[in-house]
């Protein structure tokens, strides 16, 4: 309500900054806790937002914790640096002993050579005195360091080095690094200065090293004593730091929630408007009518807890804005609502398709995924997530894939249950059928003839008993040679029937919207022609499917025999093209029933007339209404009558929200033309699109059969004792492929295709 106020000039800017500062301190604590690998306790509690006076206590406690932890970290870093220096000095004293022994040998050799030279020649020669520096450098810098010394000093230095076997901890980063001890012998102050500058450039640490063995031994003893003392102090420091972090880890999750809640409250309060006295905050919000009483109770409870003497006032406002859509969900319906909302949220007070999706979505999925065995696996997984949902939710698993599966656990459960049902209808369990009631087919062959045939062509004319299988498909189709032909015909027709019913239902939902918003023009100019177009073409196609199933049979003779059954696809194409069908035989009729050709022409003509009906009726009616409205307004202006005293209503192209906006006939015509073309072409393409139900169902069944015949059959076909051992290995491979390919990948594919059909 205060868009003109600068963000930095709003009432509660300082409070938001204080919350930001508290969040920064909590992030610092969290980082230190994670670095120490301490588990953070998450009880799943949802604490209430603290009162403003509690905010001061939280700030004080966070400030104290941060200060204490930073002091401990600084002390620990200083102690670790001292420990590193002493450790490096210890290694220098140990490693350089051999270097000094070599130096003594060098000096003795020189003194012996001087003794052999006459005294008159030594009179002008001074004695040689070698200086040295000792230190430690990173191992990877040693080759470059050595080259630089050689070039800068022109070979007038003597470098010895020895590697430190154990890695040393860097006090700043905490990483372990490998280092090397070195000692450099040189002559003269000029070389000494040059060597020290090179050491400084390569960040080598230089340490004092006594020349005499006795002094070195004494220093080494002192260094070891100091290292032991430092170890004791370091362990005590680490214990204290651990205690501080463990105590903070117990509450940090709830602290985060409290700070974020109070920050959100102040952020929201910053959007409120202030009254003239600068003491009262004013806000506007959308509230579900069913929750008004709950809001009143919450405001009353807030007044009591804050100790305020002035209760908040909640007034209901009448506004012309369209409210936002709010669909109340629970843990069961939330997943289905998300599927619908991912395409688009319904306008306020429109029909929400999510409740119907609860049934149609898993059903269409199951039509493509129909397999009793795979459905059982999916149901078991979903049931496990549903039964243990509280435990699994409390674990706060961060994997994105797991959260997607867990969020849609009820969708997966229904998809699994529906897949078990369609699997029973298809009589398909891991590509095998179950003979529960006994087959309704028989084979007129002897046992040797049956054994000689690997596959048998099932002929309903000679092998059918006349009594259908009680539930689902007859199990004998699974082992027949012509099962693909039969399944294709069955599943293709079922897909079209389901698709037309689904689309009809979607169009009928629009009738509820038009009725609720009292958009009579939309009913007469859009809904009725849409229904007629869909029913007269594709509804008639479904009726022909049922008529063919009922009227034609392999056991009938004459014009209703299987040979005389016309192709529905050819019949439908001829119907749209207004062509007469050709006869298929002497006894056969070209039409399925008397008067079919005349009825079909009538249906096509009426369906085609619906196209201009949808395209032209609404724009011309709107133009007529607009002319009447303009004439009425002109008449009122001439008579000097206020427009607000007369209610003037007209349905605009937006659907009946009043005629306040300017009417543009061209825009309305283009808008209506786009909708008409989209519906007419969409009816054809969507009907064909539902054939994916047949295609994916066929693909799933064939993949399952291929996996069984190429993997599982190998283990089952062995006749000796090795087959039992081999079956364990082969079953493992078959089970892994079944779960990964047929359940997970095929399930994801069917899920996406179902989502597309619903959208």
TrEMBL record:
Q: Give the Gene Ontology MF terms in alphabetical order.
A: ATPase binding; proton-transporting ATPase activity, rotational mechanism
Looking up InterPro entries in the UniProt record yields: V-ATPase_116kDa_su, V-type_ATPase_116kDa_su_euka
Q: Name one GO biological process term.
A: vacuolar acidification
Q: Which UniProt keywords apply?
A: Coiled coil, Hydrogen ion transport, Ion transport, Membrane, Transmembrane, Transmembrane helix, Transport
Q: Describe its membrane topology.
A: Multi-pass membrane protein
Q: Which GO terms describe its cellular component?
A: plasma membrane; vacuolar proton-transporting V-type ATPase, V0 domain
Record bears the keyword Ion transport: yes
Tell me the domain of life. Eukaryota
Q: Which residues form a coiled coil?
A: 12-89
Q: Where are the transmembrane segments?
A: 363-387, 408-426, 494-512, 524-546, 602-621, 726-752
Q: Which Pfam family is one of those matched by this entry?
A: V_ATPase_I
Annotated compartments: Membrane
Q: What is its main location?
A: membrane
Q: Does the keyword Membrane apply?
A: yes
- General function of this protein: Essential component of the vacuolar proton pump (V-ATPase), a multimeric enzyme that catalyzes the translocation of protons across the membranes. Required for assembly and activity of the V-ATPase.
What family does the database annotate?
Answer: Belongs to the V-ATPase 116 kDa subunit family.
State the protein's name.
V-type proton ATPase subunit a
Organism placement in taxonomy: Eukaryota, Metazoa, Ecdysozoa, Arthropoda, Crustacea
């Amino acid at each position: 309500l205060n868009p003109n106020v600068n963000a930095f000039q709003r009432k509660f800017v300082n409070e938001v900054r204080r919350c930001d500062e508290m969040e920064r301190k909590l992030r610092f604590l969290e980082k230190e806790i994670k670095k120490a690998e301490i588990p953070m306790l998450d009880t799943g509690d949802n604490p209430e937002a603290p009162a403003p006076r509690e905010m001061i206590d939280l700030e004080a406690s966070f400030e104290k914790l941060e200060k204490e932890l930073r002091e401990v970290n600084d002390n620990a870093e200083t102690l670790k640096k001292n420990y590193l220096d002493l450790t490096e000095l210890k290694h220098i004293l140990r490693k350089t002993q051999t270097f000094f022994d070599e130096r003594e040998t060098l000096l003795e050799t020189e003194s012996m050579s001087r003794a052999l030279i006459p005294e008159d020649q030594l009179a002008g020669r001074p004695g040689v005195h070698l200086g040295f520096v000792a230190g430690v450098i990173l191992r990877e810098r040693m080759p470059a360091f050595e080259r630089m010394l050689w070039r800068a000093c022109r070979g007038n230095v003597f470098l010895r080095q020895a590697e430190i076997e154990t890695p040393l901890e860097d006090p700043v980063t905490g990483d372990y690094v490998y280092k090397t001890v070195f000692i450099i012998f040189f002559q003269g102050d000029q070389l000494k200065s040059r060597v020290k500058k090179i050491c400084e450039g390569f960040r080598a640490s230089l340490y004092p090293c006594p020349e005499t063995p006795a002094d070195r031994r004494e220093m080494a003893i002192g260094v070891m004593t100091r290292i032991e003392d430092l170890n004791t102090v370091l362990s005590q420091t680490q214990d204290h730091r651990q205690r501080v972090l463990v105590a903070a880890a117990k509450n940090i999750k709830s602290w985060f929630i409290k700070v974020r809640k109070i920050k959100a409250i102040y952020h929201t309060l910053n959007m409120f408007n202030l009254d003239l006295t600068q003491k009262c905050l004013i806000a506007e919000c959308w509230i579900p009518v069913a929750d008004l009483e709950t809001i009143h109770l919450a405001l009353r409870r807030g007044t009591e807890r804050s100790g305020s003497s002035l209760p908040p006032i909640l007034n209901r406002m009448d506004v012309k804005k369209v409210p936002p859509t709010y669909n109340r969900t629970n843990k069961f319906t939330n997943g289905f609502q998300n599927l619908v909302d991912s395409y688009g949220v319904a306008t306020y007070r429109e029909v929400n398709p999510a409740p119907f999706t609860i049934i149609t979505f898993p059903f269409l999925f199951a039509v493509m995924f129909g397999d009793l065995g795979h459905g059982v696996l999916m149901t078991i997984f979903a049931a496990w997530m549903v039964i243990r949902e509280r435990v699994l939710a409390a674990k706060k698993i961060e994997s994105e894939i797991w959260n997607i599966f867990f969020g849609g656990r009820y969708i997966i459960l229904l998809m699994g249950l529906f897949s078990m049902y369609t699997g029973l209808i298809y009589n398909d369990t891991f590509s095998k059928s179950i003979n529960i009631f006994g087959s309704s087919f028989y084979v007129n062959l002897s046992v040797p003839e049956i054994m000689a045939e690997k596959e048998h062509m099932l002929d309903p004319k000679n092998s059918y008993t006349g009594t259908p299988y009680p539930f689902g498909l007859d199990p004998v189709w699974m082992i027949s040679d012509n099962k693909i032909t039969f399944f294709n015909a069955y599943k293709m027709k079922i897909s079209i029937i389901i698709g037309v019913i689904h689309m009809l239902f979607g169009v009928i939902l629009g009738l509820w919207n038009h009725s609720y918003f009292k958009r009579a023009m939309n009913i007469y100019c859009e809904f009725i022609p849409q229904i007629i177009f869909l029913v007269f073409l594709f509804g008639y196609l479904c009726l022909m499917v049922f008529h063919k199933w009922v009227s034609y049979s392999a056991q009938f003779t004459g014009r209703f025999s299987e040979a005389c059954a016309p192709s529905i696809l050819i019949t439908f194409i001829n119907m749209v093209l207004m062509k007469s069908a050709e006869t298929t035989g002497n006894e056969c009729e070209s039409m399925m029933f008397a008067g079919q050709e005349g009825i079909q022409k009538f249906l096509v003509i009426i369906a085609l007339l619906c196209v201009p009906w949808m395209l032209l009726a609404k724009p011309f009616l709107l133009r007529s209404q607009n002319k009447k409205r303009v004439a009425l307004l002109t008449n009122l202006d001439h008579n000097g009558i206020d427009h607000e005293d007369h209610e003037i209503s007209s349905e605009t192209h937006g659907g009946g929200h009043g005629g306040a906006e300017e009417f543009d006939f061209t825009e309305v015509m283009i808008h209506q033309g786009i909708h008409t073309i989209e519906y007419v072409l969409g009816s054809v393409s969507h009907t064909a699109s539902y054939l994916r139900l047949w295609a994916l169902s066929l693909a799933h069944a064939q993949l399952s059969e291929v996996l069984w015949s190429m993997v599982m059959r190998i283990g089952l076909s062995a006749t000796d004792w090795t087959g039992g051992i081999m079956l364990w290995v082969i079953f493992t491979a078959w089970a892994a492929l079944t779960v990964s390919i047929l359940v997970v990948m095929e399930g994801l594919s069917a899920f996406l295709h179902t989502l597309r059909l619903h959208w």
